[in-house]
């Protein structure tokens, strides 16, 4: 699939899909509660790592809350930044995959095809957001946790790279429901697990091609910025700055 | 014997073994029809063929869900309770009914975990059961349909202009 590298929105302009899924993260609303992290783990069958594995950097999280301390005790402030795969329009992880396991979907999602992945980890090393994580071990769930695995998401085995999918299984269902009724997906009809679980609605998901969607409107906010914007990755996740305190 | 002779014999032995295993798989001997023997000798040729019962009368989830579904024993009984037990198969069915036991049908088609497939959308797209499962009305027993491999799916997706995106079918 060809893309014009000169246009930041190249993909959505040339792709044959009517949708372009994007997310907005309102940093003014994030309380750092990590409900999104838990919801993501449950929805996407993400393996559980113990303390030891986490210390070795082997733990997997598709979304993480980065924590920044500002000031000196007792006058200290903490700021949170939820970081997930940015689904870049010019994703650095895609061209480096030798087996095309990492690719761009017509909907503008950065996808990982697990059954194609051979685990060279080049994509993960090329991701400036450290959004891709490698399965160093086969997953394991203590009983009865294995009973709650989501059947709509494959369980990744050891040796495979994985990452946030914007809950593609939910997108797929939403698109199918819309197709059966012969209409477009409505705004708010599809919610990834993190968005659904956010108690303060700091995460907003939707179709940027729909000018009335919340994502399309919030994206134009003056507070909007992208992570590591200068790299030219053109992320699909827009962050909204905190309001001045 | 010299080391060279032993080497040749070993090499030939390994080669023969590899060929044997290859032959075994190419003949699908690893996938014997015996494994498909069902607890009740059900015939699609009789039910779908002779009696012309619509596929979705029994596999009634196909239109509404990813799986087509295997009919419950109660559904079999809607017809069978008023039929005389003339064949051994019907007697087996009756035994299951009297013992209030579900028939442990052997599942024949199972897609790998990384594949997302839904009957619902394929029927919605206008495909018929026979498009993928073959002419079931002429098949005795519960035969396996063609191997559901990716190339086979893609051939049809290509012909019909369906999605080629990996994430349409891989999850």
Secondary-structure map:
The complex is a heterodimer of chains A (245) and B (171).
Chain A: H1 10-14, E1 21-26, H2 35-43, H3 51-55, E2 63-72, E3 75-84, E4 102-104, E5 110-112, H4 122-126, E6 133-134, E7 161-162, H5 168-180, H6 193-197, E8 203-207, H7 214-219, E9 224-225, E10 237-240
Parallel strand pairs in A: 1-10
Antiparallel strand pairs in A: 1-8, 2-3, 4-5, 6-7, 9-10
Chain B: H1 3-26, H2 44-50, H3 55-58, H4 73-80, H5 88-98, H6 119-124, H7 129-133, H8 150-159, H9 166-169
Q: Can you walk me through this structure?
A:
The complex is a heterodimer of chains A (245) and B (171). Chain A has 245 residues and is α+β, with helices and mostly antiparallel strands. Chain A has one domain (21-240): Alpha-Beta Plaits, CATH 3.30.70.20. Chain A contains 7 helices and 10 strands. Chain A has helices spanning 10-14, 35-43, 51-55, 122-126, 168-180, 193-197, 214-219; strands spanning 21-26, 63-72, 75-84, 102-104, 110-112, 133-134, 161-162, 203-207, 224-225, 237-240. In chain A, strands 8-1-10-9 form a 4-stranded mixed β-sheet. A two-stranded antiparallel ribbon of chain A has the order 2-3. The longest helix of chain A is centred in the last third of the chain and has 13 residues, at 168-180. Residues 1-14 of chain A have low confidence and may be disordered. Chain B has 171 residues and is mostly helical. Chain B folds into 2 domains: 1-30; 35-70 and 105-169, no CATH class. Chain B has helices at 3-26, 44-50, 55-58, 73-80, 88-98, 119-124, 129-133, 150-159, 166-169. In chain B, helix 4 (73-80) packs across helix 5 (88-98). The longest helix of chain B is centred in the N-terminal third of the chain and has 24 residues, at 3-26. The radius of gyration of chain B is 22 Å and the shape is flat. The termini of chain B are far apart.
């Amino acid at each position: 699939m060809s893309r014009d590298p000169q246009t930041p929105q190249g993909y959505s302009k040339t792709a044959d899909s009517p949708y372009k899924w994007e997310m907005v993260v309102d940093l003014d609303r994030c309380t750092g509660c990590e409900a999104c992290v838990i919801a993501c783990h449950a929805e996407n069958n993400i393996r559980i790592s113990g303390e030891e594995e986490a210390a070795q950097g082997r733990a997997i999280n598709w979304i993480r809350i980065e924590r920044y301390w500002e000031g000196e005790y007792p006058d200290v402030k903490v700021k949170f930044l939820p970081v997930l795969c940015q689904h870049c329009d010019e994703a650095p992880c895609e061209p480096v995959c030798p087996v095309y396991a990492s690719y761009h979907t017509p909907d503008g999602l950065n996808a990982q095809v697990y059954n194609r992945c051979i685990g060279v980890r080049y994509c993960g090393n090329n991701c400036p957001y450290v959004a891709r994580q490698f399965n160093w071990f086969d997953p394991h769930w203590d009983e009865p946790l294995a009973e709650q695995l989501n059947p709509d998401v494959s369980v990744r085995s050891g040796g495979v790279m994985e990452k946030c999918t914007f809950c593609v299984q939910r997108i797929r269902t939403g698109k199918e429901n819309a197709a059966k009724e012969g209409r477009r997906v409505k705004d708010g009809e599809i919610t990834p697990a993190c968005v659904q679980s956010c108690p303060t609605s700091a995460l907003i998901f939707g179709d940027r091609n729909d000018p009335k969607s919340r994502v399309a409107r919030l994206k134009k906010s003056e507070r909007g910025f992208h992570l590591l914007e200068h790299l030219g990755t053109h992320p699909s996740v827009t962050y909204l700055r905190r309001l001045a305190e | 014997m010299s080391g060279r002779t032993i080497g040749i014999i070993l090499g030939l032995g390994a080669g023969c073994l590899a060929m044997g295993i290859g032959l075994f798989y190419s003949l699908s001997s690893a996938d014997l029809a015996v494994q498909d023997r069902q607890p009740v000798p059900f015939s699609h040729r009789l039910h779908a063929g002779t009696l012309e019962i619509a596929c979705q009368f029994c596999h009634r989830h196909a239109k509404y869900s990813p799986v087509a579904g295997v009919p419950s024993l109660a559904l079999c009984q809607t017809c069978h309770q008023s039929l005389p037990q003339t064949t051994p198969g019907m007697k087996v069915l009756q035994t299951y009914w009297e013992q209030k036991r579900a028939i442990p049908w052997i599942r024949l088609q199972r897609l790998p975990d990384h594949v997302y497939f839904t009957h619902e959308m394929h029927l919605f797209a206008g495909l018929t059961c026979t498009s993928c499962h073959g002419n079931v009305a002429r098949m005795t027993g519960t035969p396996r349909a063609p191997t559901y491999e990716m190339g086979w799916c893609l051939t049809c997706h290509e012909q019909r202009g369906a999605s080629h995106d990996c994430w349409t079918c891989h999850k």
